[in-house]
Specification:
The protein is an alpha+beta fold. It has 2 domains: 131 residues, OB fold (Dihydrolipoamide Acetyltransferase, E2P); 278 residues, BirA Bifunctional Protein, domain 2 (2-Layer Sandwich), CATH 3.30.930. It is built from 17 helices and 20 strands. An 8-stranded mixed β-sheet has the order 6-10-11-20-19-18-15-14, with helices on both faces. It has a 5-stranded mixed beta barrel with strand order 1-2-3-5-4. Helix 9 packs parallel to helix 15 and helix 14 runs antiparallel to helix 15. The longest helix is centred in the middle third of the chain and has 23 residues.
Length: 501
Amino acid sequence: MTDSILEESAVRLEKLNKIIAAGINPYPSASERSHTIERVLAHFSELEQSGDAITITGRIRAVRGHGGASFVDLEDGTGRIQIHLKRDRLGDSSYDLFEETFDHGDFIQVTGIVFVTKRGERSVSAKEVKLLTKALRPLPAKWHGLVDTEVRYRKRYMDLVANPEVRMNFIKRSLIVKTIREFLQEEGFIEVETPILQPLAGGATARPFITHHNALDIDLFLRIAPELYLKRLVVGGLERVFEIARCLRNEGIDHLHNPEFTQVEFYQAYADYNDLMDLTERLLPRIAKAINGSLSVEYNGETIDFTPPYPRIEFRQAIIDQGGPDIDQYTDRASLADAAREAGVEVAETDGCGDIMDNIYKKFVRPNLVNPTFVINHPVELSPLAKKIQGNEKYVERFQLVLGHGNELCNAFSELNDPIDQRSRFVEQEKLRAGGNEEAQRMDNDFIEALEIGLPPTAGFGLGIDRLTAIMTDSHSLKEVILFPTMRPLSEEESEERVDK
């Protein structure tokens, strides 16, 4: 802790002791509030005319003293208002206690009547002030306009106190989730919960986190996706299910990835991927309208238009159209790898054909997509859980919705419900794992058994809540829209140094 913070904290601790000596509890359990600040401001004229006393609560954001009077900026979760405190109204003892012991950052309860100052500012004239929480640390002095994003992400509580626009991002995130939930419920889906601790990590191509259950003495995997469990529910007769799921993947961290993230997945019986593209074109405009009041949003300096319909481009043809190699011309891994390298795409030793094709696509196609675009019909090697296209079994009935120069927002496909085909796909995935690909999927015999019971024609869909929120709030990094993103731990000394900068 730096000298300045130590000195300020020592002063505040002395004030705390003075409050206690005066017989006042600096951390009372009980508080009262008749109005939020937002409500006071919305009904100010009525309250002024009636002269009724109100009680509000909040954090002191600024204090300005003028002889026997003080002005306080008070903020709650809904807004900010000025409080006027006068010695002759509060009484000497109460006013002196406030002046001598209350600080910027403290929480207080104020009872009084509203009025307008000579300068025209709507205010509350305090009749009574009660301390609710004594803050023993000051808010960092330079937090307005702070550019040290490391501190903001590591100490989100400070970020939320200092930056109202950050709070608004998370309010919008909550509204996004609410809108998705309401939309799916209106479409006849029911919300369910599936295990986070799983005996096999399945439903996505990703490296899992591993934990150990002591009582059972078994290793378990933290969920990388809810997919295989949700499809089991469709087998069981729940024809439309969804889950807003926390997922964990032991992967790298960048502006588009966090090891812990949130997605919504839903599964609809008697539907295919075409049906879900139509549904997506109903869902995303509704979200955009709810969050921004418009079908157009600004993201990274460009306008993204969510007005449907969205273009549908085929995976293979899109690569060709952007100057990439024709992936159908290469019949084995070696020739495909050579073509990729010639096109400037890196190829790792553990990359299978699907990985190579995906990396070609990511180089030539994905960065060029700005407005929402369905990339459809992916290679079967990339999609071990999707149904093959009848008559063209090298590809599957799958789409990804891509926008904003490479943000993969949605992933969906007609679900593979042929247990024999699914088993052979898992076998191929196990071969990739044996070759060193730690993200390849595992053989899941219980899921195969579920398919043998019978999965009706079904389409499944996943949408990343974090990425969607980043786009809707014009946030470049997912860390801006995840309250507590995963960060490298700092020592206490490093932490204090960053805060005091």
